[in-house]
Amino acid sequence: MNTAIVLSELTKTYGTRRGLTELSLQVNPGEVLGYLGPNGAGKSTTIRLMLGLIRPTSGAIRVLGLDPHADAEKVHRRIGYLAGDFLVDGRQRAGECLAFLGNLRGGVPTQRIGELADRLELDLSARIKSLSKGNRQKVGLVQAFMHRPELLILDEPTSGLDPLMQQTFLDMVTEARDHGQTVFMSSHIMSEVESVADRVAIIRDGRLVATDTVAGLRTRSLLQVRIDFAAPVAAEEFAALPGVTDLAVTGTEHGATLTCRLDGSPDALVKAAARHTVTGLHADNQDLEELFHAYYTSEHSAAGARADRVA
Ligand SMILES: Nc1ncnc2c1ncn2[C@@H]1O[C@H](COP(=O)(O)OP(=O)(O)OP(=O)(O)O)[C@@H](O)[C@H]1O
């Protein structure tokens, strides 16, 4: 079976503005890939390139084995796409709009549209212009999922959905994967994709900075350590230890508390601490949201510095 999506050394510039820079990424059939990055990172640019709506400045793209620009019609027939700004004629009723789009895709049973609308609590008789942003987003989701496409490309799909509907959407993604469909979904929130994504790709400033499974990303996260001492300790004693960053030592009523982040083996830190009387020890993994923020806020952060480990 063909790889669902292959992006090879993709660069897109808009005049002098950066869109994407030498981005390479593969998405396997049946995989859910979460595509994460802050505003302006290049997520929509990547999606527009994958749909053949714009052309790369250099590099190559294959979607379902086809060139999305040269074979746009064939590719579009086989995918479900939700744009970041899903726009349709607001005078139509939601049901009419979905029936029309279903016919364009070779016919979708009314029952299937009804089932999806019920799950998402979407009123099919409402005129689109009268719907709230979140309800309009639901129309977009139904049209992307209704014909059970081989590949779903979803740009910020949960935008405007309340937490209950976000969960319904995530269930729909899981079911799509169970049916063997491939899902590429962009987001700027880690927690939104971490429960459904097989892999996560993180982009910043148009470049891919990490791709890994959610479990793999967790192993990259640093330990946050707190050690309580019975008497004052000197920060210099710990600052240069291997893997220790963001070190702080504060005096307390009963002695001192050291906090730091730790990358790799705790051995040196534990041995250094053991030269003193330790009254408390606490170590926790940095959560994924924090790791993600470190990736996209600072090139020189601990996690950012490990961004070269692109899987
Ligand atoms: N048509 C355009 N003309 C000029 N610059 C553009 C155009 N489209 C995108 N860009 C620039 O390309 C970069 C990436 O934009 P893109 O919309 O792909 O980001 P994004 O990750 O989707 O952001 P968001 O989360 O805000 O939607 C930005 O710097 C943006 O200003």
Automatic annotation (TrEMBL):
SUPFAM superfamilies in the record? P-loop containing nucleoside triphosphate hydrolases
Task: State the UniProt keywords alphabetically.
Answer: Antibiotic resistance, ATP-binding, Nucleotide-binding, Transport
Residue ranges of every copy of the ABC transporter domain listed in the record: 5-230
Where in the cell? Answer: Cell membrane
Mainly localized where?
membrane
List GO terms (cellular component aspect).
Answer: plasma membrane
Q: Which GO terms describe its biological process?
A: response to antibiotic
Q: Which residues form a coiled coil?
A: none
The record's Pfam families line, in alphabetical order, gives: ABC_tran
Membrane-topology descriptor: Peripheral membrane protein
Q: Give GO MF terms, alphabetically.
A: ATP binding; ATP hydrolysis activity
Family membership, please give it.
Belongs to the ABC transporter superfamily.
Q: What is this protein called?
A: ABC transporter ATP-binding protein
Which organism does this record belong to? Answer: Streptomyces ruber
Source species taxonomy: Bacteria, Bacillati, Actinomycetota, Actinomycetes, Kitasatosporales
